[in-house]
Amino acid sequence: MQFQASTFLWTQHCGIISFNPLIHLHSLELDLKQQRIIACKVVHANTSFPPFTLVNIYAPATYTQRVTFLKEVMDLPLFNFSPLRPPESLSALQETLDSDPTMLYPMLFMGDFNYHATTYIVDNSDNLTHCTTNLNTGEDIHRRFHQTINTHFLECTRSQEEGSLLPTFRSGTSQSTIDYLYASPFLFQHLHSSDISFMERSGTDHALLRARFVFSSDRQGPGLWRANPRLATNPYFTDSLFPTLDVEFFVKLELTESIDLAAAVEPTTPQANWDELKALVQNIATQVGRNKSNAMERQCKRLQRKRNRICRHHQEPHTRFLQLLRAIKSKIGSIQRDIAENQRLCADHHWREHGETSAGYLKRTIETRAAKKSITGLLHPTTNTLCTNPLAMQSAASTFYGKLYSPDPVVPDSINTLCDSIPPTDTIPTNEHIALQSPFTIADSLSETLRTKLHSSPGVDGLPYVILNVILQHAKAAKLAVKVFNDTLALGIFPASWLKTCMCLLPKSGGLFNLKNWRLLSLICCDAKIFTRLLNSRLMPLMNKLICPQQSGFMPGRFTGENGLIFQTTKLIGAQQSSETIALLLDQEKAYD
Predict the structure, then answer these.
(1) Please, are residues 353 and 508 in contact by the beta-carbon 8 Å criterion?
(2) SS3 193
(3) Are 533 and 417 members of one domain?
(4) Number of Cα atoms under 13 Å in the Cβ half of residue 176
(5) What is the span of the domain harbouring residue 587?
(6) Which InterPro entries does the UniProt record give (predicted)?
(7) Helix segments in 153-269, DSSP class H
(8) Which residues are bridge partners to 174 per DSSP?
(9) Residues 30, 16: contact at Cβ < 8 Å?
């Protein structure tokens, strides 16, 4: 599995990579000739966590070179800490944080240290006497380096509390613990969880050290729930969906309709039934997705624990245990690939608009939008004051867009004059009206779900096209969906979920404190977009004949670059002929009203 890095820093021996476009890495220059250490400042664009320093090292494997390297590292200004006593416990750590704010330097220090930590653990009472006898021996430099790190940092994996340290490196049949992940006290108090996980040999011969830190923020909400599109190919989901729809929805629906008919009560509408069906699918998708995710995590942890037990208690290589380890590693690798695919889906959500197809433009736009997704402040359109807290910014946005999208007064006579001026050749022929208004079929609906773009973001219901395609393969559900589409076509009746959208603000050029410099984007439910696609599939063959060829945007088979080429050619001709003609660009503020 390959991930596209957002920002990264590399040297010959080590690197730091951010896969999140919101997390930026700013390199810190180190006066060190060896390229075995790299440091940077880590900053979140939305200030979801405080900036901190991240240091990654790859110490030499040979003893003499490692001694020289560690001595040079300790001489760096980055590691000139004030003298502190190592905390004896988490409670002592909290007391130290409360009494000494200078300890709040946030730093992560990690990498391949190429030595076993327990070799250089010394009694603190003997440390001063030992260090003053000889400060230049290799063993003493190792011990002083280890003492410095353990005085100012805490090891995040905490594997030593479970007994012997877990191996983090393997070479053939030998294993050792040489990789560590240290956090300064400020970051350590935000540590949520950590582990040491085996990685299959095709990826690396080191283990994966993971630490999760949790920070609170009042500027981010829970976001929109989205069903995992991979559920469409999950047999457990499809096997659970159809029986649940039959038993818990359609059987109850038929019973309710018969009771309503007997009681002379108006039955529920197809639109309300369709929204209720989608709510049931949401519950099934949520339950199956969580069960699948939790089951994979539990199985992976169980296999990791089994591997760790074998590594601890059977240090000597044995054929039977080696075969068992290979089987466990194979299962772990399969689960890790499945989990990585789900994480890739979560990390790859970028808002796209249909007109943006240039790869270079998309790359620049995605980077800009990701960096500026968080709104730090907005000017209120009425008071012209800067609003910085979430409630005030919501009020400013509501006032601005309420005014922007309020209908402007129009002159009916002008509309009639405009319509009367349309020539008959530019209208849809009468003989096409019947075909345009004919009812949709189940086959029509299925074809539109299959030819949609899979990366299109769903609306408030969270159901992507692939999940809707699975729903439409259920005969009764497909019949209900087509009834909803045809009622919308003939009667203009919409389900309530179609009238709900999630509004997203995308940054444009200019000062982002002004709401005019944000583009409003609506996330609409995919079943509503299926209906519009059904309409477009009927209209587009006629529209290609009616819309002038100069309009290239949003038209299949036409390229907006042709207009750019024509404009550039016209500029060259005008310049050669010294023409006084001007080019006028019109950008409508309410283009989609």
Answers:
(1) no
(2) strand
(3) yes
(4) 14
(5) 558-593
(6) Endo/exonu/phosph_ase_sf (IPR036691), RT_dom (IPR000477)
(7) 185-188, 235-244, 251-262
(8) 171
(9) no
Looking at the predicted structure, is the pLDDT value of residue 494 above 90?
A: yes
| Boundary (domain end) residue, out of 296, 327, 347 | 347
At 555 the three-state DSSP class reads coil
Tell me how far apart the alpha carbons of residues 284 and 279 are, in angstroms, rounded to a whole number: 9
Strand, helix or coil for residue 49 = coil
Which CATH number belongs to the domain containing residue 14 in this structure? 3.60.10
Give Cα 178 to chain centroid, integer Å: 32
User: What sign does the dihedral 282-283-286-292 (CA atoms) show?
Assistant: negative
Is there a domain that residue 218 lies in? Answer: no
Residues 459 and 519 grouped into a single domain: yes
Pairing of strands 52-58, 107-112: parallel
Tokens of residue 91, six digits: 């409670």
Phi, psi dihedral angles at 143 (to 5 degrees): -65, -40
252/368 same-domain check? no
Q: How confident is the model at residue 91 (pLDDT cuts 50, 70, 90)?
A: very low
Final residue of a structural domain among 299, 319, 347 = 347
How would residue 405 be classed by pLDDT, with cut points 50, 70 and 90? confident
Does any domain span residue 221?
no
Q: Are residues 170 and 35 in the same domain?
A: yes
- By the 10 Å C-beta count (0-12 exposed, 13-18 middle, 19+ buried), 107 is classed as buried
Average the pLDDT over 411-419 and give the result: 92
pLDDT tens digits, one per residue of 203-250: 677 888 889 998 876 666 667 888 888 888 888 888 889 999 998 898
Strand partners, 242: none
Q: pLDDT averaged over the chain? A: 79
| pLDDT over 90 at 468, yes or no | yes
CA pair distance 85, 147, nearest whole angstrom: 10
Query: Which whole-number Å values give the CA distances from 399 to 374, 394, 512, 515, in the listed order?
Result: 20, 9, 17, 11
- Structurally, the chain folds into a number of domains equal to 4
Q: In the 8-state DSSP scheme, what is residue 207? A: P
Q: Is residue 481 domain-shared with residue 536, that is, in the same domain?
A: yes
152 is a domain residue: yes
Q: Whole-angstrom Cα distance, residue 110 to residue 115?
A: 13
Residues 385 and 468 in one domain: yes
Residues 324 and 271 placed together within one structural domain of the fold: yes
Strands 208-213, 378-379: pairing is unpaired
Interatomic CA distance for residues 163 and 141, integer angstroms: 26
Total Cβ atoms within 10 A of residue 30: 17
For residue 241, the Cα-to-chain-centroid distance in whole angstroms is 27
**Helices 124-133 and 138-152 meet at what angle, rounded to 10?**
140
For 76-87, write each residue's pLDDT tens digit.
888 877 554 444
**First CA to last CA distance, the chain:** 44
Pair 503, 515 in one domain: yes
Say if 139 falls within a structural domain: yes
pLDDT in tens, 15-58: 999 888 888 899 888 877 778 999 999 988 777 788 899 999 99
DSSP symbols for 436-470: HHSPP-HHHHHHHHHTS-TTPPP-TT---HHHHHH
Question: With bands split at pLDDT 50, 70 and 90, how would you rate the model's confidence at 108?
Answer: very high
How far is it, in rounded angstroms, from Cα 245 to Cα 251? 8
Nearest alpha-carbon partner for 451 in 356, 515, 383, 540: 540
